[in-house]
Design a protein that fits this description.
Elements lengths: L1 H22 L4 H17 L3 H8 L1 H4 L2 H19 L3 H27 L7
Helix pairs in contact: 2-5, 5-6
């Protein structure tokens, strides 16, 4: 049942993104930024954590989950280190995901040859 919950919630998040691409003039990059900001906002108002508890990876893997993770990291660092945690918490919380993105991007660039669009 956990897989079904993750699939449905993650799918709904993707459907919202696809509707935004199809029905608005927003670029995909702006939609991605909106998703991260939405994850932070939903975590701030206390809505995203119950969604993560319900859907697991269906809520943590999309970009809204990245915003949720950043927000949680800032909260944790502020409670431990005070105001300086505002600057440190997001970097610490997102370091693993960003590091993986850099490594896999580098590997992809090494393995595959880019082609010019024509």
């Amino acid at each position: 049942m956990d897989f079904v919950k993750a699939f449905v919630v993650g799918g709904l998040i993707c459907v919202i993104g696809q509707i935004l691409i199809d029905k608005t003039k927003l670029t995909p990059a702006r939609i991605l930024v909106c998703y991260v900001v939405a994850g932070v906002f939903l975590e701030l108002i206390g809505v995203y954590e119950p969604l993560v508890d319900f859907a697991g990876a269906g809520a943590t893997v999309p970009l809204t989950g990245f915003g949720h993770n950043l927000c949680k990291g800032v909260f944790r660092a502020v409670s431990d280190k005070g105001l300086c945690g505002v600057l440190e918490g997001g970097f610490k919380a997102g370091a693993t995901g960003l590091g993986a993105a850099v490594v896999f991007g580098l590997l992809s660039a090494i393995i595959f040859k880019p082609k010019a669009k024509s």
